Amino acid sequence: MAKQAKKLAFKTTKGIAMYPWLNKADYQFDSNGQFKVNLRVSKEDANELMEQARLAAKETFGAKAANAQLPFKTDEDTGEIVIVTKSKFQPKFVDSTGQLIGANNVPQIYGGSTLKLAGTIYPYTAGGRMGVSLQLAGVQIIELSEGSAAGIAFEAEDGGFVASNDNAANDNFAPVEGGEQSYNF
Prior knowledge:
By secondary structure, the chain is mainly β.
């Protein structure tokens, strides 16, 4: 019989964000939504956290700990460790100085951003599975990535199509009763 799950705090070193869902929840595989991010760090930087998760599994599941799912995987391209974190709740955000960022001022966080993460190591059993998850509670933004579209740049071409940034000037975007606007196809 597994012992009562013991929650322990964790903090990561700096790492590179992968597939962040931090500004809004991801509902694809969970109807309640999940805030999540994977963090790619060197093996050396991940060792302490990996050992804490293994120890939590051993203390909770005993001899069955070897079968427990752990919140880590190896990046096949780089050999680095990918730390998997998630939460039902949006984490708190701080800037690189440790200053809390208000909920309305959190910038869009893209993959490639440099972050530190904090939260709780949580052993679990669910649906016949057992494992250890990293419940995300806080994110420190060290450096923001500009996102995948930021690297796209073209030179101007004379005489070509020019998009209008004013929707009211578009004949297909017409006002309707009550002052709202809708598309007119």
